[in-house]
């Protein structure tokens, strides 16, 4: 808190000087969320009771602009209500920096941004903010952008260490050691086209305990189409390279189509295939697709049974056939999304191949714009699992009522605006 006061004081002193074309915007976000978990992320084991808790994100955002320079600084605290006593002298998680970057517009077509920042592209399947997580996701990176009319090319670079070391030491943070990417986007009438190349290097120690970095490449395209009634998207990504001295060969493909029946009601259908590896496959090749930095909560059901937090990675993959119905009226938004899940590769138990059907999940969400800067959202989800899903989520029990409910309030006031 002392450091925060010093930063606020420095900002107020800085804007008092006679420098032209300055803007400062300060806004706040408070986001408490209640959750009832009775089979969330995994089938609940027999004899296990449900749990409930309230988490909260508190963010303070500073956005400053001076001529060609733009700076953003975001502080946040993430907590579970009650994780420290009422008389605590310090928070469990403290105050962290979520974003801290500076961007300079070199010209009308070129800009560069360096620091802790969000890297989010397209539908966030491969690179996203993961805003559902109270802590979100941001990277320490340098990003250079070339953006002539109707084109954009972003190139990013990152290199990580866990301290200012004087000689080589293992990188022990659960993160990549190095990363490079290029993302290109253009529009042609009603069609949007994106291309992505992502190179991620993870450090590991070989048998002689020598520290090495293996690089995995993720590459592909994301296409969108939209007119007055129809909108859809098509994506395909491949993965190759190496990970911990193992060859990688995986892919992901998805298609989604929606039709606006009325101005308020829209119906959609979608399908995604994420490659996996047969459980009786003895090869060392990694055949299971990994969405890397994707906002996985937005895909494959809101109960987060697949890919969220590393779950289901290096497994049998997934097929997700889904429908989506949305209805918006005045200040209300409703959505109903059933999913049918199947494994992409064989689930094998005692040399017996099991049915690929994993289960059906039904998600319902509702949102209400209570007032300016105040939004109320909530949802209910239920998983109807199978014995095949029990194999993947052992010791979970599919016969239990596996469900999840949540309610969240988001308060986002602008507390200070200054322009000169």
TrEMBL record:
Keywords per UniProt: Signal
Residue ranges of domain Alginate export in the record: 23-307
Signal peptide: 1-21
Highest taxon, organism lineage: Bacteria
A Pfam family this chain is assigned to: Alginate_exp
Record's keyword annotation contains Signal: yes
Protein name: Alginate export domain-containing protein
């Amino acid at each position: 808190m002392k450091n925060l006061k010093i930063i606020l004081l420095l900002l107020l002193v800085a804007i008092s000087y006679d420098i032209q074309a300055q803007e400062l915007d300060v806004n706040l976000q408070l986001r408490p969320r209640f959750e009832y978990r009775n089979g969330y992320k995994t089938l609940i084991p027999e004899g296990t009771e449900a749990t409930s808790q309230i988490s909260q994100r508190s963010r303070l955002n500073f956005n400053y602009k001076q001529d060609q320079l733009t700076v953003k600084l975001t502080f946040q605290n993430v907590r579970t209500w009650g994780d420290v006593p009422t008389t605590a002298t310090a928070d469990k998680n403290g105050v962290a920096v979520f974003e801290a970057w500076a961007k300079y517009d070199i010209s009308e077509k070129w800009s560069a941004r360096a620091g802790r920042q969000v890297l989010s592209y397209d539908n966030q399947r491969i690179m996203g903010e993961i805003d559902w997580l109270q802590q979100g996701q941001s990277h320490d990176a340098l990003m250079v952008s070339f953006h002539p009319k109707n084109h954009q090319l972003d190139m990013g670079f990152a290199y990580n260490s866990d301290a200012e070391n004087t000689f080589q030491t293992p990188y022990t943070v659960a993160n990549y050691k190095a990363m490079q990417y290029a993302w290109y986007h253009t529009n042609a009438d009603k069609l949007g086209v994106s291309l992505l190349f992502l190179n991620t290097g993870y450090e590991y120690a070989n048998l002689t305990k020598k520290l090495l970095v293996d690089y995995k490449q993720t590459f592909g395209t994301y296409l969108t189409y939209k007119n007055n009634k129809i909108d859809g998207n098509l994506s395909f990504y491949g993965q190759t390279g190496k990970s911990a001295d193992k060859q990688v060969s995986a892919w992901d493909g998805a298609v989604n189509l929606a039709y606006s029946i009325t101005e308020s009601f829209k119906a959609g259908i979608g399908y995604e295939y994420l490659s996996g590896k047969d459980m009786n496959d003895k090869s060392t090749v990694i055949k299971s697709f990994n969405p890397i930095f994707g906002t996985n909560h937005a895909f494959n059901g809101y109960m987060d049974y697949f890919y969220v937090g590393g779950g289901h990675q290096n497994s049998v993959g997934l097929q997700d056939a889904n429908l989506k119905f949305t209805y918006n009226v005045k200040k209300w938004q409703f959505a109903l999304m059933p999913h049918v899940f199947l494994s992409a590769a064989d689930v094998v138990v005692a040399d017996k191949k099991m049915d690929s059907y994993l289960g059906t999940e039904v998600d319902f969400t509702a949102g209400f714009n209570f007032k300016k800067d105040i939004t109320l959202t909530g949802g209910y989800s239920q998983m109807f699992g199978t014995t095949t899903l029990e194999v993947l989520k052992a010791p979970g029990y599919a016969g239990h009522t596996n469900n999840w409910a949540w309610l969240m309030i988001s308060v986002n006031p602008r507390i200070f605006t200054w322009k000169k």
